[in-house]
# Entry
Amino acid sequence: MRTTVTVVLADAQPAIRHGVRSVLERSGGISVVGEAATADEVIAETSRCRPRVLVLDPLMDESAGLRVIPEILRLWPETGILVFSGADDDKAITSALQAGARGYLFKRADADQILRGIQAVAAGEAIIDKSIAGRLGSLMCPTSGPQYFYPFPQLTNRERDVLERIAAGKSNSTIARELVLASKTVSNRVSVIFGKLGVADRSQAIVLARDAGLGHG
# Structure
């Protein structure tokens, strides 16, 4: 039996909270157990509800919304934080991820992306809006020189191996042979990768991966 994912929604705008709640309540398997409009309310509701996932707009309470991320993780490390924000600027993104947020989606995300984001964070995975992925390395390590920050932190090491070969235009059978995996295993991993990247098919995955610098070697 599937375990229900409990969620607290934290956003200063009631309309945003209502819209996300409606999406989640229609989905099944996700239960909104609390809402918050200020940083103080986030702490109180997280303490009361102990959700699996906190969906948070860090700009909800000026800078206090961002400061609440490490505080939540210090007090309740089992709660995964998914940022759901309208801020598409480098400082906001890096500040949230460096503070410990496990995911970052924009408020333009559709219902499927929101659900996928919550499920990924609840499962202990990282997920970011695909428009961020291509520039994440330079955001997180802007002066890193020869160091390399992998652009898709939500993927496991083996999934990265598969994606890099997809970006190079290799077929599943070729990938299976190179990685010494069963064809069915590769097919399953490809499906998981598509879900984590928020793409619908192989061609979209290739474009996204190549834009992030993969597949050119």
